[in-house]
Amino acid sequence: MELLNATKMAAGYTMGLRPDGRELIVVVVKGTFTIPGPGEEPKLAEEQVPLVDADVFTGEPGFSAPLYETDYAPFKPRCDVLLNGSAYAPGGKPTQRVTVSLRVGSMTKSFDVVGNHKWSAGLLYFAPGAIEPFTQMPISYDNAYGGVDKANPDKPQFYVANPAGVGYHVDTSAKAMNDKPLPNTQESGKAITAPNGKYRPMAFGPVGRSWPPRPKWAGTYDQNWLDKVSPFLPADFDENYYQSAPEEQQLPFPQGGETVELINLTPEGKTSFALPKRDVPVVFFRRGGERDEKQAVIDTIVLEPDEKRFMVCWRTHTPLRRNIFELTQAVAGRMTRGWWRARLSGKDYYPSLRELLQNQPASNGEAEQGEEEQGEEEQT
After folding, report:
1. pTM above 0.70, yes or no
2. Where are the domains of the chain?
3. pLDDT tens-place string over residues 152-165
C-alpha cells in the first residue's frame, strides 16, 4: 500500500490487530509544534520529529525509565498526555522544593520536586538527609520513588510500580542505605520518610509496559493461549494496555483548542497556550475503486518544554477484509483539487510541468493540467 502525506507533518502506517483477531491498517500522523510565546499560537516546527518505531528508554532498556513509546499502537481508547522536562525554581532563585503542575483540557496533575538528598543511616536509625537547593531539576521516573534493592544479589527486591527509580530499600541496614539517593519527586504533602514505604512514583513520562496498571490489561498468556490462540491476542486482552500515560494523565480525545498550562515547568514559571486545531482526514482506497474516509483523532500529546516544542499524534484505522493487498493507497491530509481530478479520471498526477517532463513525454493536455495545478498550489 502507498501512503501519500499531504499534511506537512510526519506520517506512517502499520498493520494492527484487534482483540477479536481482525487485522487493521493503522495510519499515524505526528506533528511537531513550537511552544508559543504569550498570546501566540503554536506553529509547525521547521524540524518535524519522525515517528518512533520502537520504545526508547533513558538508558538500558528494562532498567531505566521509558522516554518514548512507539507511535504505532493500533488503537488507544483515550488520549495520553506526556511530558519530558524539568522543574524550575521560581524566578531562577535556588530552592529546596517546588510544586509543578500540568494541565491539558480537563486533565490536571501536580506534585512536588525537591533537591538532591540522601539517606542518612546508622545502627539504630535512618532518616532523609539535608536537601540541596536547585534551580533546575529533571523530572523522570529515574529519579522518582522506586528502584531495586540489590543488597542480596541472589534475590533482588523490585519496587514493582517503578523499578527504574531510587530510594526504595528492603534492607534498612546502614551499609545498605547510608548515602543512597532519595527521589527528587513526591506527592504534595507526602514526604518520603520510609525506605520501604508504598509511595506513588511521580513523573509525567510513559509508564513501563510491565508496570502497574498495564499488565492487568495485557491478558492471559497461558498454555491454552499457546495451544489454541497464539499468535492472536488472548480473549481477555484490553486495548487500555496501549495507553502509555498514567491513568490520571489520560483524557477524552481532544478536538483542538484546549488549554495547555505548565506551572514551574519552564523558566518563565507559567506557560499557557492552546492546542492546535487541525483537520486530519485519512482516505483509504481499495481495489475496485471503493474508498473508506476517516477522521484521525488526537490520542497522544508529548510536551517537551526544555526543547520548546511539543508533539501531537493523530491516529485512525480501517479493518482489512482479507489482507493488506486489498488496499492500494491511503491519503493523509487534504490533496489538491487537481490531484482528485486526475485520480478520478484515471490519469497520472504531476504537481508541476517540470515533474511531468521528468517522468514521461508530455501531451498538450497533460502539460496544461500540470501548469493549471501549479497555479492552484501557488494560490493556496
Report:
1. yes
2. 1-84+205-255+273-334, 86-203, 337-379
3. 888 999 999 999 99
